[in-house]
Amino acid sequence: MAGLPPQDPLSFPAMGATHAAGASALALDTCRLIGANPSGPVGARLIEACDHLPPGAALASGAERDALVARLIDGATNRETYFFRDRRQLGLMASLLGDWATAHPGTTLALWSAGCATGEEAYSLAITLRRQGRNVSVLGTDISRSALAVAREAVYRTGPMSPCRQVGMEDDADLPLTGDGRRCVADPIRAVVRFAEHNILKTPPAPLFFDAVVCRNVLIYMDDTARRMAFTALAAAVRPGGLLLLGPGDSAPPTDPQSFGFAPLFRDGTGLFVKGSVDDRPTGR
């Protein structure tokens, strides 16, 4: 979408007063629902989208309004993601969880990819751990219904800026090429990954305690209040001694992981935290 016009984004002066008020309320309500800052990029896209709604559309109610909000969220949220994003972080996570699983034979590691977008991250978690011979169950959640539909289809385009930009020949077994040049997720990987619609500002999904929660490049688009709410929910979902994986900008104030009971495992900004002290990290000791 184009940028906002140089005007108060909540005034909607070009529309009739009733429609303008409805569009403004719809934009703000949707921002609150997903925790977006109205002055930030996601909020700006929502406001602009409401500005261009047909007359009367913003005044919809009930199921019609719910469907409209879902479409607005689909259009405004950032779903830029790809397979094996930050392989080093994923590898460190897999090593730590693998040590813990070795000390607890028969364990199925439970992971939550919060804000999973179109599913590449959730599948990457499963692939990384299964390559170590681990039993794993991955839940991917997102608020965007269209993104989840892509995740469940599990077929992705290829190319330099595609979701498969980091996929190589060594990944063919888990992400085989299709006849039309795309890549699909192999059945053994799909079998251990499930997807559900969920807002990370709400109560964490079941199971209530995960061995690792991954939420990367989601919190940076939220306002301060929403970031605290989301962090509270994410922290509650990690079992004691479990791991939290964040993106580079997700742990900025006011969401310092240490204030939520997490300790950084590395000093180089890896974005890998353990619930408790460093001595509680999931090793086999």
From TrEMBL:
PROSITE patterns: CHER
Domain CheR-type methyltransferase: 59-260
Single annotated GO MF: S-adenosylmethionine-dependent methyltransferase activity
GO biological process, one term: methylation
Keywords for the protein's UniProt record, in alphabetical order: Methyltransferase, S-adenosyl-L-methionine, Transferase
InterPro entries: Bact_Chemotaxis_MeTrfase (IPR050903), CheR_C (IPR022642), CheR_MeTrfase (IPR000780), SAM-dependent_MTases_sf (IPR029063)
Keyword Methyltransferase: yes
The keyword Transferase is annotated on this UniProt entry: yes
UniProt name for this protein: Methyltransferase domain-containing protein
Organism per entry: Azospirillum griseum
